[in-house]
Amino acid sequence: MNTLDRDKQLVAEILNGKRQALSELVHLYHTNMTRIARSFVGDANAEDVVQEAWVSVVRSLGTFKGEASFKTWMTRITINAAKTRLRKEAKHISHATVVEDLYQDDYKEDGTWRVAPIPWDDESPDALLQSEQVLSAIAKTIDKLPDNQRIMLTLHDLEGVLMEDVCNQLDITTSNGRVILHRARLAVKAVVNKLQEV
Description:
- α2 (19-60) packs across α3 (70-88), α5 runs antiparallel to α6 (163-170) and α5 crosses α7.
- The protein is an all-alpha fold and 198 residues long.
- It folds into two domains: 3-88, Rna Polymerase Sigma Factor, Chain: A (Orthogonal Bundle), CATH 1.10.1740.10; 104-197, Orthogonal Bundle (Arc Repressor Mutant, subunit A).
- The radius of gyration is 19 Å and the shape is elongated.
- 70% of the residues lie in helices and 0% in strands.
- It is built from seven helices and no strands.
């Protein structure tokens, strides 16, 4: 059974009163929802936003038509819950970050590498430890990114939400979204390069 069919079946079971189906949906999507919420409101409020999103999901299940995947539908509800939380706290996402592109020399005009990155050796236990260090460093870097970059990177690269959908949710143009995503990727790349040199 594919994901779309599984999700439709779980929604139908929930609407018929099967609590186990809701538990399964929570198990399948809670981590994704938390990651999305964190990208908007940070660690401190992420769980509250996810709770609010789950309440909205359950209340709105009867309106889920299956025209989009459940994941897409649930992602939009989570983003809306996070945006509502931000409005309540009078915080605003800055959509225009003026940062000089320090890494433009890494690429040719056609967008390809001037010098390809050095391949990582993950054949030894030391390399595996280093890999865990890299993942930790990347996570910390993502957490420190400006809001718009963290949100764009999380939704597009980690959650697989289409660029157009992310831009629509953030009320920015697709070109602005690409610039924001590029800057976020450059920040992560800089950390990886730094660790690779060590």
